Amino acid sequence: MPPLKAQPPIDAPVTAGFLGPDRNWHLSAGAVTAVTVIAFAIWSFGHAGAGVSPPLLLLAIAFGLFMAFNIGGNDVANSFGTSVGAGTLTMKQALMVAAVFEVSGAVLAGSSVTETVRSGIVDIDSMHVDPQSFVYIMMSALLGAAVWLLLATKMGWPVSTTHAIIGGIVGAAVTTGLVTGTGGLEMVQWGEIGQIAISWILSPLLGGIVAFLLFGAIKRHILAPAARAIALGSHGFDDAEDDDDDDDDEEDEERRHMPASERVSELQQAAFAESAALDLTPGGPGAELVEQAAGLSKKKRKAARKIERKAAYHALEKRVPPLAAGAAVVIAAMLVFKGLKNVGLDLSLGGGILLLIMVGIAVWMAVTVFARALKKQSISRATFIMFSWMQVFTASAFAFSHGANDIANAVGPFAAVLDVLSTGEISEEAAVPTAVLAAFGIALISGLWFVGRKVIATVGSGLTSMHPSSGFAAELAAAAVVMLASVLGLPVSSTHILIGAVLGVGIVNRAANWKLMKPIALAWVITLPAAASIGAVVVLVLRAIF
């Protein structure tokens, strides 16, 4: 097996020269962002017409793009954290995948018509608010949510962007009602706020339970045979070694009396972690397995290894394909029924089920062929490659779905503002031009690259160590819970679900970082009031200026 290079910390400081070794990437991302902002501003003035206030429209553009930027830095980074943390994707590869699938999801399946936020958490209709005040409320909500998201991102806390924009709207609307005498706290629908509070517990709990069960099954039935085969390796407990290596009896005898901690190198520990995340610390099951293997003669170890390798490849060929097929069905259902509903894809229930069955069968067959082809690889490498590819597909699907749905947290309020500035009145619905979706999609990617590393580090390594198998399990569990919650109408947050799934994986490996989870949970609770407070201040400033 080729050496596995240790990955540098995700948020490692950059000190090599001007802007560090990624100078060209920084400059390119900055240039694309700057061109997008300028082009979008020119388009917006042309779209809004001559009667619009230039300073107000410029502020609206800045607030909207700033919100999209911070959604990328927090929410998109949260989505890619497991992939980058597992080593499946580098930061640059994550950027490219996000650039393609996030922007495609926003442009192809982003809401073509967005309801202006008039009822729901806050009953704005009851205020009989004038169009100008409505613009101030939406702009303040965007900035309030964006500022809080930036603060949370800088701290490495993954929070709900949906809760942030809701908080911004609550703070700005209630403050406007109190100032104008048209309403107050009675406008807030506290039952909806209660559902948000429920999601703080329900979302991570559901994500954690599903991930715990899923990864536990993967570890027992797929990864454990691979780990045993590695432990029984003929030389250094690395299954990449040739069985025919002629170690002399004296060397073999010496190795039996060496402590397990000395015999198992960093590379070999990585192979264990990739294959089964076994505990190699003294007294752990991995260390015990190494000791047992060391006590066997070379002949017996080779015979046992052949049996375990056969079982490991059998697990890859027979158990991974149905797992991949099930994952494909869940991801396809999420895309068809949640991400592609706005592109005119009107499938009946029977047609949708038939499509999902075809996808599942096709993936089952394809993965079976792929697993057979991997028999020429060492078992640790075959396992790593198999789950890496599966995780790439789940990450790509998540990115597309995210671009299609969660970008509305920035696009919705901005589209409402742009519509009011263009028409002078508050419409029941506001069309979202493609230019808005494209510009905000690019802002998402920019946020991921420039400020997303701390959140990626938190999700990818801070809460627990991630490897392709565990990252795949976390992402699949989160997708399944999101789909189930959508069907049942449960008040959940996709961000909180994924964090719960990561913790579920950590519980299986007995390595969950509960200490780090404490400030994250606190951040969830204060997201709504923090964004509301900032939104309230911003709306007062806007009313004073304009």
UniProtKB/TrEMBL annotation:
It is a multi-pass membrane protein. It comes from Brachybacterium alimentarium. Keywords: Membrane, Phosphate transport, Transmembrane, Transmembrane helix, Transport. Pfam families: PHO4. Belongs to the inorganic phosphate transporter (PiT) (TC 2.A.20) family. Residues 239-253 have a biased composition (Acidic residues). InterPro entries: Phos_transporter. It is found in: Membrane. The chain crosses the membrane at residues 27-46, 52-73, 94-113, 133-152, 164-185, 197-218, 320-337, 349-370, 382-400, 430-451, 520-545. It comes from the Bacteria. This is Phosphate transporter. One of its GO terms (biological process) is phosphate ion transmembrane transport. GO terms for molecular function: phosphate transmembrane transporter activity. Residues 254-263 have a biased composition (Basic and acidic residues). PANTHER family: PHOSPHATE TRANSPORTER. GO terms for cellular component: membrane. Residues 237-263 are annotated as: Disordered. Signal peptide: none annotated.
